[in-house]
Specification:
The protein is built from eight helices and 40 strands. By secondary structure, the chain is α/β, with parallel strands linked by helices. It has three domains: 142 residues; 51 residues; 201 residues, no CATH class. The strands form eight sheets. The protein has a ten-stranded parallel β-sheet, with no helix packed on it. The protein has an eight-stranded parallel β-sheet with strand order 5-9-13-17-21-25-29-33. A hairpin with a 5-residue loop joins strand 1 and strand 2. The radius of gyration is 44 Å and the shape is elongated.
């Protein structure tokens, strides 16, 4: 069962909005106001009684007064008329009371009917919501099952269904709280991420196929004519396949490649659908970056330890956690917009990695990552902090024209291949403390607006700061104590001309002095030392042959 699926098996009682939780009784009690008052219970009797009695009084009373009291004929007629008026008034009042009571009863009945209709409508709405939610969960379960199907088309169908379900939950106004809609969507997003993290053994096999093919090609070439990069690559591949028994020849390489490319399409589709719903990045004329949230911006995306064997170029990836991922084949992240933090800590890049033109809007963490092939970050933009501490670059590392708006951390990074920072821009501090440059270290034309720290860095091959620009502070190659322990180190095995420190004319200068080892003087930064790369002492975990700090 994929992560998050279990939550979809909850009881249906949780699906109904809280404001509809207490239905009214179906047979409401009739209010006491509807009970017949005494004048209604005896209305006919009262009506007849007052009619007959009033008429009799109106006839007899004036007659008696005329006969026995000497009332004039005109006065008796007037009295009779008034008595008839009073009798008619009483009858009218009784009629009005009866009509009012009837109208009141009709209103109460209408109100009761309206209330019952409202209750029925609410109940129907609750039932409808239950049905809708239950139908979504049924589709979710079926879609998750489709992800395990052998056919790529079926798996794609499951993905599109899951994506649609997320959109439906987010637009569901029956869930009044946005957090509830987000919670339902996150469950499905977790399932999609779980699929991305699921193993795909064929990815490693394809990588082995191609690596084996590359090894055979390099072995056929004359070792004397191989470039340094190819020689290094040949060494790596020899080490990888030194035990040939671990390599199994494919039975049907055509079928393997077909399955491989199908799964590439399936998994990239997930990222494409996520990208469509992620934040949008715009840059105005003043280069001000504006991020507009997308419908899926509030979700967390966990791709940690996933096997990545497909291109992700020109997408938007939000809150991407790629920690400890294994990236097979060529890692293509060209033009990717990373919204929020991007975590590649501990990731393994088995071949070339291309982040050319990528944009990192917040922290970019590549700490402890390993780049086996070339790593290209040309024209990449790091808006937040950039962490490359303890990162290993086996192949060449290209940071050509890269922009570091936040602090750049390359503490104890290892550059086994060439390190190119040509025209790179460091807006804040650049930390290269303890970094090791085994081959060429090229900082030509690079611009440092903040501090640049090279304490305890090791330069084993040619190094150039030609045309570099240090705006406010001269770079730091040694601590103020003058101790060689934390000073930058330059290989004595190189030609002194291979170290170039001639910065741009309007730059803060690299203060330099002279250091001597084995009778060979070198002009290197003040306080830095010369060292012999062959003098490594495993017990002491340090180089034993060092010069005095340059003076």
């Amino acid at each position: 069962m994929l992560e998050g699926e279990r939550s979809y098996q909850r009881g249906q009682e949780n699906l109904v909005p809280s404001n509809n939780a207490s239905p009214a009784p179906e047979n409401p009690v009739i209010p006491k106001a509807q009970e017949n008052p005494w004048y209604i219970r005896h209305f006919i009797k009262l009506l007849i009684g007052f009619g007959l009695g009033g008429g009799a009084v109106a006839i007899l009373l004036p007659l008696l007064l005329w006969l026995h009291c000497g009332m004039s004929s005109g006065s008796s007629d007037q009295l009779r008329l008034h008595l008839l008026y009073v009798t008619g008034g009483i009858i009218a009042v009784l009629t009005l009371l009866q009509t009012n009571w009837k109208n009141q009863g009709d209103r109460l009945k209408i109100d009761a009917d309206i209330k019952k209709n409202e209750q029925d409508a609410e109940k129907n709405e609750r039932d409808h919501i239950r049905q809708v939610h239950a139908e979504r969960r049924s589709r979710y379960t079926k879609a998750v099952e489709q992800l395990a199907d052998e056919k790529a088309t079926v798996r794609l169908g499951g993905i599109y269904t899951l994506v649609g379900l997320v959109d439906e939950w987010l637009a569901d106004e029956s869930l009044e709280e946005e957090s509830d809609r987000h919670k339902e969507g996150q469950v499905i997003v977790n399932s999609l991420c779980s699929y991305i993290r699921s193993p795909f053994p064929l990815a490693e096999k394809i990588d082995e196929y191609e690596a084996r093919k590359e090894l055979e090609t390099l072995k056929k070439q004359d070792s004397k004519n191989l470039s340094t990069d190819k020689s290094l690559r040949l060494k790596i591949l020899f080490e990888r396949f030194k035990d040939s028994a671990e390599y199994e020849e494919p039975r049907d390489i055509t079928a393997d490649y077909a399955k491989f490319h199908e799964e590439q399409d399936v998994r990239r589709t997930i990222f494409e659908e996520m990208s469509k719903r992620s934040s949008k990045v715009s840059v105005d004329k003043s280069k001000e970056v504006t991020v507009t949230s997308g419908t899926w911006s509030g979700f967390k995306f966990d791709f940690s330890r996933a096997p990545i064997f497909y291109p992700l170029n020109n997408l938007t990836i939000e809150q991407g956690n790629f920690a400890y991922t294994r990236i097979y084949s060529e890692a293509d992240f060209r033009g990717v917009k990373f919204i929020g933090a991007a975590d590649f800590g501990g990731a393994g890049f088995t071949r070339e990695a291309d982040f050319g033109g990528a944009g990192f809007t917040r922290e970019a963490d590549f700490g402890g990552a390993e780049f086996t092939g070339e790593a290209y970050f040309g024209h990449a933009k790091f808006t937040g902090e950039a962490y490359f501490g303890h990162t290993k670059f086996t192949g060449a590392a290209y940071f050509l024209d890269a922009e570091f708006t936040g602090n750049a951390h390359f503490l104890h990074a290892e550059f086994t291949g060439n390190a190119h920072f040509l025209d790179a821009k460091f807006t804040r501090d650049a930390h290269f403390m303890g970094a090791k440059f085994t081959r060429e270290a090229d900082f030509e034309g690079s611009k440092f607006a903040g501090n640049a720290y090279f304490l305890h860095a090791k330069f084993i091959s040619s190094t150039s700061f030609s045309g570099a620009y240090f705006k406010k502070y001269a770079p730091t190659f040694a601590d103020t104590s003058g101790s060689a322990r934390f000073s930058a180190r330059f290989s004595v095995q190189m030609d002194p001309k291979d170290y170039v420190f001639s910065v741009r004319g309007d730059s803060k200068f690299i203060n330099h002095g002279t250091a001597t080892l084995d009778g060979q003087p070198f002009i290197i930064p003040l306080g830095a030392v010369l060292f012999d790369p062959d003098s490594w002492d495993e017990k002491k975990q340090d180089y034993t042959r060092l010069s005095e700090p340059a003076k």
